[in-house]
Amino acid sequence: MVEASNKILKHRYLFKQPISNRKHLEEHLKDAIHDYCNQRPHYALGIYTPFEVQYDKRPTFNIKTVKNAVKERREMNKMNGCDQKCD
């Protein structure tokens, strides 16, 4: 399990960044670990992040709230469309 996490941290976060020294590496690692543990849901955990599962902080979803979020996302996407014509 640890090897998989290390691989994800290296390939998804660190290899894409120009890292010039140890301090820079530590900053990127701190941000990467925060994102990996607190922001991104993991497939094996369903829709939850590792932090939510470990500390039983799973959010409760109200169907009305989810539908409103989907509606807002659609409206935002329509406003940020590209100038390309789709066939």
Describe the protein.
With 87 residues, the chain is mainly α. It has one domain (2-79). Helix content is 61%, strand content 0%. It is built from four helices and no strands. The N and C termini lie far apart (45 Å). The model has no long low-confidence stretch (mean pLDDT 83).
- What ranges have pLDDT less than 50 throughout 5 or more consecutive residues? none
Into which percent range does the helicity of residues fall? 55-70%
Distance between the termini: 45 Å
The overall strand count is 0
Give a quick summary of the entry.
It is built from four helices and no strands.
Question: Keyphrases for this structure?
Answer:
87 residues, mainly alpha
Lay out the secondary structure.
Blueprint: H1 2-14, H2 22-39, H3 50-54, H4 63-79
